[in-house]
Amino acid sequence: VQARCTNEIGSEMVKVCCRTLKELGVSEDNITLATVPGALEVPIALMNLASSEQFDALIAIGVVIRGETYHFELVSNESGAGVSRVALDY
Predict the structure, then answer these.
(1) Of 71, 73, 81, 90, which is the active-site residue?
(2) First-to-final CA distance of the chain
(3) What is the mean pLDDT of residues 73-86?
(4) Which of 4, 74, 77, 86 lies 20 to 30 Å from 66 when distance is taken between CA atoms?
(5) Total tally of structural domains belonging to the chain
(6) 71 in active site
(7) CATH number for 54
(8) How far is CA 5 from CA 2, 36, 83, in A?
(9) Full-prediction pTM beyond 0.70?
């Protein structure tokens, strides 16, 4: 699952991730990319994918860039907690 908000950075991370998966023997047919608007939506997509029981593994890719407001801490903390919750639940 990739957050599109910081697409330039995230897209490069997806390329490296897919390349590494292929190097590890994962067939391209077995790689599914789901994109969401931002980091806060990543856990929701992960939860939906995990509950489908159609995937052996899930990878979260997102970038949260620190700005001058409290927004960075909020998004980082909540998205991180959401990803952890999905990992614990599934």
Answers:
(1) 71
(2) 16
(3) 95
(4) 86
(5) 1
(6) yes
(7) 3.40.50.960
(8) 9, 8, 17
(9) yes
Structural domain of 76: 2-89
Q: Is the pLDDT at 40 greater than 90, yes or no? A: yes
* β pairing state of 2-3 and 35-36: parallel
CA atoms of 65 and 79, how far apart (whole Å): 13
On the question of pLDDT at 2 being above 90, the answer is: yes
Whole-angstrom Cα distance, residue 57 to residue 41? Answer: 18
Q: Which residues contact 27 (CB under 8 A, 6 or more apart)?
A: none
**In sequence order, which residues have a C-beta less than 8 Å from that of residue 36 and are 6 or more positions away?**
1, 2, 3, 4, 42, 44, 45
Q: Could you give the angle at which helices 42-52 and 71-89 cross, rounded to 10 degrees?
A: 10
